[in-house]
Amino acid sequence: MTNQMKIISDKIVLNKNSHYIWAKSKSRMFSKACEYGIRATLYIAQKSLNGQRASLKAITHEIDSPEAFTAKILQQLAKAQVVRSVKGPHGGFEIAREDIDSMRLSEIVNAIDGDNIYKGCGLGLKACNAQKPCPVHHKFTAIRNDLKTMLQETRLLELATSLETGLTFLKR
Amino acid sequence: MTNQMKIISDKIVLNKNSHYIWAKSKSRMFSKACEYGIRATLYIAQKSLNGQRASLKAITHEIDSPEAFTAKILQQLAKAQVVRSVKGPHGGFEIAREDIDSMRLSEIVNAIDGDNIYKGCGLGLKACNAQKPCPVHHKFTAIRNDLKTMLQETRLLELATSLETGLTFLKR
DNA sequence: TCAATAAAAGATATAAAGGTCTTAATATCT
DNA sequence: AGATATTAAGACCTTTATATCTTTTATTGA
Ligand code: FES
Ligand code: FES
């Protein structure tokens, strides 16, 4: 590289006039909002199993997420009835025991990211359509369906339990 | 809804003061740049199999993508040696026959999106780490590995051939 | 009923992705 | 050599995602 561009970080590249030029888009399966949302929900589930509510402060501390942004996401999850919120002293977020048993990962993902991840075309055609498939359709739908099945079958209880027993973690 | 917010489209929601509030992030497996990049590469491969070059204009027409943006993506792919570009009259983009045989889908994805999609943690922890796994680690890595394998095994030739025979499509 | 606490709602700010436009470089043909 | 065709490079603009800050609403308990 003989020119004067400046690499600020892995993601930020500026040229000599300090204009942003290009960096690989760090694509992810779920949006950050959804990642925080899943982690927050799992923490709340874990606390709820112990008969406790989780406050916003506790949540953001335990999952290492930005507080105000996490609040917004929890609002969404409360509207979607994934979690229940309680205002005032000793308030916070909770999930009913029977919901922890029955709720699936897919409900959280749906509430935040919608279902495009397992319905949309892998190459971005308007919709996935087996009658007029894109070149990756067959290979892609197989993986997408596995993802869909996994999300729809995985219960909150199972994930919250592995957290409780210290087998898995929400931050590092 | 008794308030005055205005739903402009599926993705754009404004409140009474015309401030953007919130909409589900349409998450996708690959970035749009990557989707266009794959589609463009497949079209170029198909033309190359017929001994022809593909011009930017022809590409954007055939894959239905924004011209200037597609040009940027093709620049990236040329730098990554996924495609070869030729300037001047009768110029355009091409892929050597032997590369069409050997090149895998993963090379295109890597050139544009990098490898986070099959290396990163599904819940957004700094890195995926089996020693201190997140709650979805085991279920997630299984799917991610299937995706990785699929991308690494799928050859351009196979996809370009299915296009040529009219079994699959790059736009609709 | 009042102070304190905690979430909801709203406004605004910043960063990244997606996209356009203009000029430069390079190849081809006459 | 000059006109033309085509991609490369750079600057810039727009939209969406991510994030923060401020004000309002609900709940509790002294
Ligand atoms: S049409 Fe592209 S994935 Fe189904
Ligand atoms: S640690 Fe989260 S996917 Fe491996």
By CATH, the architecture of the domain at 32-103 in chain A is named: Orthogonal Bundle
End-to-end separation of chain A in angstroms reads 35 Å
> Unreliable runs of chain A, pLDDT <50, ≥5 residues?
1-20
User: What integer is the average pLDDT of chain A?
Assistant: 89
How many distinct beta strands of chain A?
4
Q: Going across the biggest sheet of chain A, name each strand in turn.
A: 1-2
Helix-strand makeup class of chain A: mainly alpha
Protein name (chains A, B): Rrf2 family transcriptional regulator
Pfam families (chains A, B): Rrf2
InterPro entries (chains A, B): Tscrpt_reg_Rrf2, WH-like_DNA-bd_sf, WH_DNA-bd_sf
Organism (chains A, B): Roseivirga thermotolerans
Provide the descriptors you would attach to this structure in a database record.
homodimer, disordered N terminus, 49% helix, 172 residues, DNA-binding, Arc Repressor Mutant, subunit A, 8 helices
Care to describe what's here?
The structure is a homodimer of 172-residue chains. By secondary structure, chain A is mainly α. The first copy, chain A, has a domain at 32-103: Winged helix-like DNA-binding domain superfamily/Winged helix DNA-binding domain (Arc Repressor Mutant, subunit A, Orthogonal Bundle), CATH 1.10.10.10. Chain A contains eight helices and four strands, in the order E-E-H-H-H-E-E-H-H-H-H-H. Chain A has helices at 32-49, 56-63, 67-79, 97-102, 105-113, 116-119, 137-153, 156-164, and strands at 6-7, 13-14, 84-86, 92-94. In chain A, strands 1-2 form a two-stranded antiparallel ribbon. A two-stranded antiparallel sheet of chain A has the order 3-4. In chain A, helix 5 (105-113) crosses helix 7 (137-153). The longest helix of chain A has 18 residues, at 32-49. Chain A is elongated and about 55 Å long. The model of chain A is unreliable at 1-20 (pLDDT under 50). At the A-B interface, helix 1, helix 5, helix 7 and helix 8 of A face helix 1, helix 5, helix 7 and helix 8 of B. The first copy, chain A, binds a DNA duplex (30 and 30 nucleotides) through residues 11-12, 15, 17, 19-21, 23, 25-26, 31-33, 55-57, 66-69, 71-72, 74-75, 78, 85-93. Chains A, B: Pfam families: Rrf2. Chains A, B: This is Rrf2 family transcriptional regulator. Chains A, B: InterPro entries: Tscrpt_reg_Rrf2 (IPR000944), WH-like_DNA-bd_sf (IPR036388), WH_DNA-bd_sf (IPR036390).
